[in-house]
């Protein structure tokens, strides 16, 4: 400890305190992989069979699980080992995507977007969910995020645009449109400071928008190493303060056979790219310290949010010959979540039967990598008759008020046959080290 420098911010940030590092003087630490304790039983929700083509049909707020099906949202109280239906929300159109967001320190909300410009927000207040409707005549909406700092509800649509709507009842501001994409916008995400939106599009590009000025400040294109441009499907932010250091650049702990089982049969799946910076713009306008995780059909990218350069990429074609033809068109990495506190990325294709867990790491030279660790559910290979790929997944922090323990999360995985798998993912410290690693426990619903 004597040779380590700890700044004042780390004394108040549990993640920085855990690692006791600063960018000026990184601490050399050993790497610990995911550990799994399996207590598994899938839960079938009677009557549910998610529709093909949607982008996310499951979300959770304070142990209330929401599952979208056509023009309804089914709400379940997660009490012990039972799904107890509390209510059903009737929508004005078919849902394409649902997402839980935090509005402020005391309020959470469910956002639903879908057919014919469907845009609803259900704000939790005193144990109930108050509906707010922002429907419009625009094209179908497929993506959404929320800036709690600016009070803006943002949606991406088949009009190739992002619509930003102030939600404050006393606000005199009018909705505004961000234009620049040349095709549909299947995913958007808000930065931790609430000032920037990243959007990905079927036009194969990713754009970075500065909300206060309503401008696109950079456009990222796929590196030439990909070989051909792929439609972009997912984008998420993570701040670099959450990334921990590695001592070995070849840090994957998986055997070649395990790696192939997770990422596919192709051995050369990783590549590192050095790329020119994005559009000429005022660099003072760019986010500081933010990273972006983006996914196309077969590739996962890690991007510097300040320079918009590609830091690392992984090829993730499952190469699974067992995929039934009906699911092959959904071979796309459109399911991505980032848990910043654990420096963890969860990614899945809607044609595959597993969710891959990767950690974002930084070596002593300052280079970043995406390191695959596990896949969930850890079930045996199935035949065509029982093939049940992932439809959607979500996560929720479950120790909100515990400032002493390391963060703990529960994830829910929904399959096309209506099965729900649930896992508890937590960070722990090994005795004698300062590295945070994952503990994954599958729980019975």
Automatic annotation (TrEMBL):
PROSITE patterns referenced in this protein's UniProt entry, alphabetically: WD_REPEATS_2, WD_REPEATS_REGION
Classification via InterPro entries: WD40/YVTN_repeat-like_dom_sf, WD40_rpt
WD repeat windows: 178-219
The organism's taxonomic lineage, starting at the top: Eukaryota, Discoba, Heterolobosea, Tetramitia, Eutetramitia
Record PANTHER family: F-BOX AND WD REPEAT DOMAIN CONTAINING 7 (PTHR19848:SF8), WD40 REPEAT PROTEIN (PTHR19848)
Keywords of this entry: Repeat, WD repeat
Record-given protein name: WD repeat-containing protein
């Amino acid at each position: 400890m004597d040779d380590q420098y700890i700044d004042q911010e780390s004394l108040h940030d549990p993640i920085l305190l855990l690692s006791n590092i600063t960018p000026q003087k990184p601490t050399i630490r050993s790497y610990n992989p995911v550990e799994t304790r399996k207590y598994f039983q899938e839960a079938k929700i009677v009557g549910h069979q998610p529709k093909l083509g949607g982008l996310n049909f499951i979300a959770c707020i304070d142990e209330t699980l929401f599952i979208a099906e056509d023009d309804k949202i089914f709400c379940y109280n997660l009490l012990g080992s039972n799904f107890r239906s509390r209510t059903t929300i009737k929508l004005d159109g078919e849902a394409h995507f649902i997402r839980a967001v935090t509005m402020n320190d005391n309020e959470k909300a469910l956002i639903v977007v879908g057919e014919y410009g469907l845009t609803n927000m259900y704000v939790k207040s005193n144990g109930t969910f108050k509906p707010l409707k922002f429907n419009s005549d625009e094209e179908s909406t497929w993506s959404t995020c929320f800036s709690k700092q600016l009070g803006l509800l943002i949606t991406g649509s088949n009009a190739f645009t992002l619509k930003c709507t102030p939600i404050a009842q006393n606000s005199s501001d009018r909705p505004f449109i961000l234009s620049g994409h040349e095709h549909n916008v299947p995913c958007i995400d808000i930065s931790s400071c609430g000032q920037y939106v990243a959007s990905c599009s079927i036009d194969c590009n990713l754009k970075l928008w500065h909300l206060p000025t309503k401008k696109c400040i950079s456009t990222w294109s796929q590196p030439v190493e990909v070989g051909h441009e792929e439609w972009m499907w997912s984008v998420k932010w993570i701040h670099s303060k959450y990334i921990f250091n590695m001592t070995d650049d070849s840090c994957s702990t998986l055997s070649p056979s395990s790696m192939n089982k997770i990422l596919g049969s192709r051995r050369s799946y990783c590549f590192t790219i050095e790329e020119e910076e994005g559009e000429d713009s005022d660099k003072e306008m760019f986010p500081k310290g933010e990273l972006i995780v983006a996914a196309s059909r077969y590739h996962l990218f890690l991007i510097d949010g300040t320079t918009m350069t590609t830091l690392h990429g992984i090829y993730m074609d499952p190469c699974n010959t067992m995929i039934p033809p009906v699911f092959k068109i959904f071979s796309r990495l459109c399911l991505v979540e980032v848990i910043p506190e654990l420096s963890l990325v969860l990614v899945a294709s809607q044609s595959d039967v597993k969710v891959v867990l990767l950690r974002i790491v930084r070596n002593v030279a300052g280079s970043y990598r995406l390191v695959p660790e596990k896949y969930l559910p850890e079930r045996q290979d199935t035949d065509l008759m029982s093939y049940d790929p992932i439809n959607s997944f979500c996560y929720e922090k479950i120790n909100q008020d515990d400032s002493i323990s390391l963060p703990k999360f529960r994830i829910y995985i929904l399959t096309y046959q209506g099965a729900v798998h649930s896992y508890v993912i937590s960070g722990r410290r090994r005795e004698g080290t300062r590295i945070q690693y994952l503990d994954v426990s599958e729980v019975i619903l």
